[in-house]
Amino acid sequence: MDFAAQNEFYRRQVDACLSESFPQTDASAGGLVVEAARYSLLAGGKRLRPILLLVTTAMLGGHPDDVLPFAAAIEMIHTYSLIHDDLPCMDNDNLRRGKPTNHIVYGEAIALLAGDALLNRAFELVHETGEHFGSAGWKAAQILSHASGSQGMIGGQTLDLLAEKQNIDAQGLTEIHQRKTGLLIQAPILMAAALMNATDDQVKLLTQYAEAIGLAFQIRDDILDVIADSTQLGKTPGKDIRDQKTTYVSFFGLAGAQNRLEVSIESARSAATELQATGSDCGYFIGLADYLIIRQS
Ligand code: GRG
Prior knowledge:
Elements: H1 3-21, H2 31-41, H3 48-59, H4 68-86, E1 95-96, E2 99-100, H5 102-106, H6 108-130, H7 135-148, H8 153-163, H9 170-195, H10 200-227, H11 230-233, H12 239-242, H13 248-277, H14 283-294
Antiparallel strand pairs: 1-2
Helix pairs in contact: 1-3, 1-4, 1-14, 2-6, 3-4, 3-9, 4-6, 6-7, 7-9, 8-9, 9-10, 10-13, 10-14, 13-14
The structure holds geranylgeranyl diphosphate.
Geranylgeranyl diphosphate is lined by residues 45-46, 48, 78, 81-82, 84-85, 90, 97, 153-154, 157, 180-181, 218, 221.
């Protein structure tokens, strides 16, 4: 299967699992907040993070079905962060995944609760499934908590808010990107490595790959904010300039950002090629690196 077919195959599995993992309940059991959570969870999206967990698991000799709840959990955490990020007190946006944002449809209070519900359901799933993997399950849970907590995504979002209208240096910019976006993209790869008891050499190469694509993803996001339109993106472009944010493009210029994107992608390709040489099928990893350079949404 080529990259696109593999991606589509796993995306369908993720979508089915997400719907089953957070079923609609009736009004007496918090039906409205579940409806709001499902509105954003099932609104589409690339499903990059859960697919990475399934692909890495398969690459390391495991069965993707066995780790589907972990994959759903990551997507729930990602979706909650998008709902909260779109709220008026944060980015105040009205378009996400090509649809009106959660608070536009359900109001701010329910949107806040829908995000909270997704976060809690995510860790419920991790605990339900983690016990079947023994200590590896706990390790995977710890990786996910770290990536999404105050040392990871929440910390990165805080630094990002504090950095608005400030002059930050390249190191500060990388730190924000690494924590806000990078760690949750690295997490599924490292969780799969933990769950599949990968060797130290495999973990080293998987970490190199994961760090490189996490950074590449964010640099491309900064580029798209400048060059894409809202139909393409499914969200509002031009927000970084509006909020006077320092981004890879504002700091290094479009060509400089593109250059750094290519350096990151080269590092990802090199790690994937080395992993391939150890006998793992890294076709998806290489295809993803190529896609991240040109992705349009
Ligand atoms: C509010 C706790 C909290 C965190 C917010 C992730 C995040 C932190 C904010 C999202 C804002 C943003 C546009 C970040 C840039 C990178 C990013 C995470 C883009 C969205 O992810 P995609 O492209 O989205 O994977 P889809 O919709 O495809 O899942």
